[in-house]
Design a protein that fits this description.
Number of helices: 1
Oligomer: single chain
Radius of gyration: 13 Å
Largest sheet: 2 strands, parallel
Strand order of the largest sheet: 1-2
Amino acid sequence: KNKINEYPIVVLDDVFSELDEGRRKEVYEIIKDFEQVFITGCDKQELKGIYSYNNYEIKDKSIIKGEM
């Protein structure tokens, strides 16, 4: 942000399945101040601890807004 005066977009592809809960909390602390973070994963429980998010699911080739 300091170099181009725009917030970066952060993409985390299925990283939480590889981390224990303590390390997940560390990642949450790092990403909490970013404007846009896209996280992919297979287990919604991995996202517990994130302050606010929108959940989308892919089913039958369609994108559906899921429950949080």
